[in-house]
Structures are given as structure tokens and as C-alpha cells.
Design a protein that fits this description.
CATH superfamily of the largest domain: Type I PLP-dependent aspartate aminotransferase-like (Major domain)
Shape: globular
Number of strands: 13
Radius of gyration: 21 Å
Strand content: 15-25%
Largest sheet: 7 strands, mixed
Structural class: alpha/beta
Helix content: 25-40%
Oligomer: single chain
């Protein structure tokens, strides 16, 4: 009897998340065959020896007896109140614990917030390059992703005029990722102020992804979007995964500020979705208050001499020494978005290069096209390895580029 074919939902046809796609699956096959793969495709601090602060682990252990039961669908009060206090310390004074939702990471909250907002055909303005979950979640919930370009020649900064020109009667929201993943760009206040005024004028919901808000270099300033948006709804996303090196805790949050008077039904809809999944991981929530109120150890990693600072410096030095590579200096987050000179390697293709780098040099990277860009000469690496490992990795990258320069881009 012929097996009955079970087809995936058509809604998944245009949903992509290549960071954990075919290249990652091939890397797993190579590992099973005995090869050691350097995985630079994903920002996973624990995989590179980073640990969450000990105080956070102790807070979870000490409260395990309080974590057996479901929590409130929005999260435990101490965690939500800690987010409120952090926002207040940054000048956002109109958030209460009732407007904070705790989720199983920011990823779950992105899906929930767009699900609660979008009707079929509604448009969301997204940066290009973007963190691809934002595009995928928009499509998955029936929306249309409209990308505004953050061009490399402009330091990967958004152009407010392009954003304004992209708005239609179906536009419902605009997404800002600052510091940016994958580029490491940190947006100046004047650009954010202009975006805030555009969103207010057109009554767009502002989704501000600030998961890397304290990972900054060389004195860069991260301006919270909620301090600028007053006359429309602003949702600010944060979590434990990156700043606190606790990806596996699966704890993120979103807080709502700005004009909430007309958003009552939307927030009720979001609470309904939160109720349907009952609650987020309770043990991890007990680490939030300690994380946000304690010593911010991330600064030891990003200051001169810190581990992230050293790896970033190694990348910048290696790129300078390479005739093939370029980079816009990342001022925040934990990535570098490297470019390849196509005049030296005509026909360069990021997907093909990523596969060859994996097969020949055992390094896993994320092709630039994974981040919804129209060009094919960039790729993203994470800053998480130690500087010695990164120096070796970029030597392997340069060796393959040198080979392609002499032999041409493989066609098979």
C-alpha cells in the first residue's frame, strides 16, 4: 500500500529560518562522522563556555519549591515588577506589571504579539537585514513582510524617508532591532526619534527588539525606543538569553508603553494567547529579579580586554589584513556581518560559500541571504569564540576565499 502523503501547511511555504536549516543539519552529520565543527551560525553563549551569573542559578534553586505550579499567564509578579523597575530606571514611567508579559524567550513573544495583531494581508515594516524570525512570524500569521533597507554603505542604519514611503493603508506595525542582529549597528537617537514620529503619525504599533541592549562597545549608546514613543503603542522586548548568557533558561519579556488607551482589546487578545499556553517556564522566571537588579557582568565582557571585546578586535584586525573581506564595525550585539569583495571573486554566492566552508574547513556560518537581504556577498559570524579560535577561523575563511579567487567559484 502506497503511504499516504502528509503535506505541511501552505502557511509554511514562505517561512524560512535558515540559521538552523540545511547547513546546520549537514554540520550535525559531519559531527556524527567525527569532525569537529566550529559553529558560528548562532548566538548561543553557553556553547562557547559562557555561564549565566551564579546569583541567577542560586535564585532559581532557592525558589524551586515555588515553581511546581503554573504561574499567572503573564508571569510571576517579582519578574514582571523587575522589568517595570528596569524600564523606570531608563526613563519609561508608564509601564506597570499588568503591561508586562513573560514568555519562553523573546521568540515566543514575537509569535504571540504578531498573532494577536495581524489580519490576513496586514503589513509589517521590517529591517533588511533582519533577525529572520520577525519575517517568518509575520508570514506565518497571515501578514505581509515589507522590508526597509539598512544598507551597508549607510552603516546598516535605516533611512526614515524610505520607511515613510513604504507605509500603506494596510501597514499595522514597524519593527526596530537595536542593537541590530545581524549587523551590530546601534541606531543614533535622531534616527530613532524620526521613526517614532512616523509611527505616531500613522498610528503604527512599534515593536522594539532590544534583546542586546547592554551589549555595547566603544561607548555606544543604546536609546530605548519606549523613551521616544508616546502617542502610539510601543512594545519593548528583552530577555535573559544574551546579556545574561542564559539561552537555555528560555525567559523573555515584552513590556507595553506609550498610548495604551486604544490598545485594550489588543492586550486582552495577547493575554488570551498567553493563557492558552498556560504560562512560561516558571523556574527561569525566578532568575529575572536577580538578573536585572544585580551586578551587570556583561560590562566585564564588552570593555577593553574583555572576552567579547577581544574577539571583536580580532575580527576587525583580521578583516583589515584580508584583501577579500570588509565589515562595518559592529557597535553592539554579538555578531559581525562580513562582506566579500565581488570584484576579486566574481559570482560569489553566500550559500555556496557557506556550504564549501563547512565541508572543507569545518566552520559553520550563516549566509547573508538568511537575513532577508537582496545581495549575496555577506555572511554573519558570532563574536562568542575566544580570540584565538576566531583568528584561526578567519584564517580558514581567507584560505577558501584565496582558493576561489584563483580557481573561480565552484559551479557543482
Amino acid at each position: 500500500m502506497k503511504p499516504h502523503r502528509i503535506s505541511p501547511s501552505s502557511r509554511l511555504q514562505d517561512v524560512k529560518y535558515e540559521i538552523r536549516g540545511p547547513l546546520a543539519r549537514r554540520a550535525a552529520e559531519l559531527e556524527k562522522a567525527g569532525y569537529e565543527i566550529v559553529k558560528l551560525n548562532i548566538g548561543n553563549p553557553g556553547a562557547f563556555g559562557f555561564r549565566a551569573p551564579e546569583t541567577m542559578r542560586l535564585a532559581m534553586i532557592e525558589n524551586l519549591r515555588e515553581a511546581d505550579a503554573y504561574s499567572h499567564q503573564k508571569g510571576i509578579f517579582p519578574a514582571r515588577e523587575a522589568v517595570v523597575m528596569q524600564q523606570q530606571s531608563r526613563g519609561v514611567l508608564d509601564v506597570t506589571s499588568e503591561e508586562v508579559f513573560i514568555g519562553n524567550g523573546v521568540s515566543e513573544l514575537i509569535l504571540m504579539c504578531l498573532n494577536a495583531l495581524l489580519e490576513t494581508g496586514d503589513e509589517v515594516l521590517l529591517p533588511s537585514p533582519d533577525y529572520p524570525l520577525w519575517t517568518a512570524a509575520t508570514i506565518l500569521h497571515g501578514g505581509k513582510a515589507i522590508h526597509y533597507h539598512c544598507r551597508p554603505e549607510n552603516g546598516f542604519l535605516p533611512d526614515p524617508d524610505e520607511i515613510l514611503a513604504s507605509i500603506t493603508p494596510r501597514t499595522r506595525a514597524i519593527v526596530v532591532i537595536n542593537p541590530n542582529n545581524p549587523t551590530g549597528a546601534v541606531y543614533p537617537r535622531e534616527i530613532l526619534e524620526r521613526i517614532a514620529r512616523i509611527a505616531e503619525e500613522h498610528q503604527l504599533v512599534v515593536f522594539s527588539d532590544e534583546i542586546y541592549d547592554q551589549i555595547l562597545y566603544e561607548g555606544a549608546e543604546q536609546v530605548p525606543m519606549a523613551t521616544l514613543v508616546k502617542k502610539t503603542l510601543c512594545a519593548t522586548f528583552g530577555g535573559l538569553s544574551k546579556v545574561y548568557r542564559a539561552c537555555g533558561f528560555r525567559v523573555g519579556w515584552v513590556s507595553f508603553s506609550g498610548e495604551k488607551g486604544g490598545a485594550k482589546e489588543y492586550l486582552q487578545g495577547l493575554e488570551l494567547l498567553a493563557s492558552l499556553r498556560l504560562c512560561s517556564n516558571v523556574p527561569g522566571q525566578w532568575a529575572v529579579q536577580t538578573a536585572l537588579g544585580g551586578k551587570q557582568s556583561i560590562y566585564d565582557l564588552t570593555r577593553p580586554g574583555g572576552r567579547l571585546w577581544q574577539t571583536r578586535a580580532t575580527i576587525l584586525d583580521s578583516v583589515t589584513a584580508s584583501k577579500y573581506l570588509s565589515v562595518v564595525k559592529p557597535m553592539g550585539a554579538m555578531y559581525a556581518f562580513l562582506g566579500v569583495d565581488e570584484t576579486l571573486i566574481p559570482g560569489f554566492d553566500d550559500q555556496r560559500f557557506a556550504l564549501e566552508l563547512l565541508e572543507q574547513k569545518h566552520v559553520l556560518i550563516a549566509p547573508g541571504t538568511s537575513f532577508n537581504v537582496p545581495y549575496r556577498n555577506r555572511f554573519r559570524i558570532t563574536l562568542l569564540p575566544d580570540w584565538e579560535t576566531m583568528k584561526d577561523v578567519l584564517s580558514r575563511v581567507n584560505d577558501l576565499l584565496e582558493d576561489w579567487s584563483h580557481k573561480g567559484v565552484p559551479t557543482t
